[in-house]
Design brief:
single chain; alpha+beta; 2 domains; three-stranded antiparallel beta sheet; two-stranded antiparallel sheet; 4 helices; about 50% helix; binds zinc ion; TRASH domain-containing protein
């Protein structure tokens, strides 16, 4: 099978080259990008790709990221329901992410750019980064990286008041 060496980069900026099957650099990069997790990403800048190919890779990355967020929300929903709390907010987030996923999957070049979820601040409870549309925001309570964090925070607040 024909392969290409594709440059990948991690969050520390460390670069490696990985062998991936493909008859072109784009084909190999696209294949690799579908398999990579959050830590390592394809280093697009080092590949000579045209605008269409860059857009395809970005779209694939965004779809992957939304799917990951939805998986996390499903897990959180189970936790929240187990704790006997309401999952209304989680359902709302899941709905908007699902709509977004649907739109991106159907998007074509005319609809660019895709607009990745914006960083909105850090979590009131744990300090991790929170992203627009993926985190519960509540002006009174603060901003949270996810629903479990807010659920935990509420529980802690209740305990502290006792
Ligand atoms: Zn948090």
């Amino acid at each position: 099978m024909e392969t290409r060496l594709i440059p990948v980069i991690d969050s520390t900026g460390s670069r490696q080259y990985l062998d991936a099957p493909g008859r072109s650099y784009f084909e190999a990069a696209y294949h690799l990008n579908s398999l990579l997790g959050d830590v390592v990403r394809v280093d697009k800048d080092l590949l000579l790709l045209n605008a269409e190919e860059v857009w395809m890779l970005d779209k694939q990355t965004e779809i992957k990221s939304i799917r990951r967020d939805l998986r996390v929300l499903y897990q959180e929903k189970i936790e929240v329901l187990k704790a006997g709390n309401s999952a209304t907010d989680i359902n709302e987030s899941m709905n908007s992410l699902s709509v977004r996923l649907f739109k991106i999957e159907r998007a074509d070049r005319r609809n660019e750019p895709l607009g990745i979820g914006k960083y909105v601040g850090n979590c009131t409870r744990c300090g991790r980064e929170a992203y627009d549309g993926r985190a519960p925001r509540n002006t009174e309570e603060g901003l949270f990286c996810n629903y479990s964090c807010r659920s935990e925070w509420r529980r802690e607040q209740k305990q502290a008041r006792k």
